[in-house]
Prior knowledge:
This protein is mainly β. It has one helix spanning 9-28; strands at 35-55, 62-82, 87-98, 101-109, 116-140, 143-161, 168-188, 191-201, 205-210, 216-237.
Amino acid sequence: MKPRRPPKKSDVRKSIVFVLSAVWLAVLFPAEAPAQWYAGSDLGMSFVTFRTDYSYPVGTPDSYANKASGFEAGALLGYDLALSRTVTLGVELRTATGRARWELDTVDEFSGTEKGGPSRLRYEIPWTARASAVFKVRLLPDLALTGEMGLEWGSVRLNKTSAASTSYDFKGWSPGPAAGAGLEWRVSPALDLVARFAYAGYRDMKTTSRFPDGEAWESIVVRPCRLSSRVGVLFRIGPRPSAG
Length: 244
């Protein structure tokens, strides 16, 4: 299996520049363009893929795409700035927790050695945090198309346990570029309903497995990515932005 290209440092830098540019515009744009804060929450599903490459001192390398899905809930805070009657630029922060968890019970058999035995693997991203620039284009008086681009951090946890075979336990925050799109429906001056899809590809996570006697064996590279679909509500604070 040909491994997927991991997010480059340049991708992360571009996402950071994109978000900072949106913040700069939101803060320094002329005062005649009204602005508005909002807060909200959403619920949905998270679909996670852990593309994993294994290499060994002896034997042929292996590659797998381990997938999981689960419930996700998030909270967000944002700031909208009207650039015209139909176009709005915003900055949004979102944090979420999800229950997508990949688990596998297996029996390890390593070529070139008699070592191995039953083991259990568990990979997950229970927490995420995202900073995004959000563009909104009004299609109808009460309906807008949204697009976002930014940077997301995922709390990646990679765990393998075994009494006889190899094991490892790795936890860390991994950043990566993120993008998404959706629809926003105005229900009242203070309330919006939203539906969104978003994708994030995180930086590689690397670790090494060891046998119970301490011998290092597997070199493991995991490339996590996450797709989410969700619906939610936004509560507006103050008058809606409406540039002339």
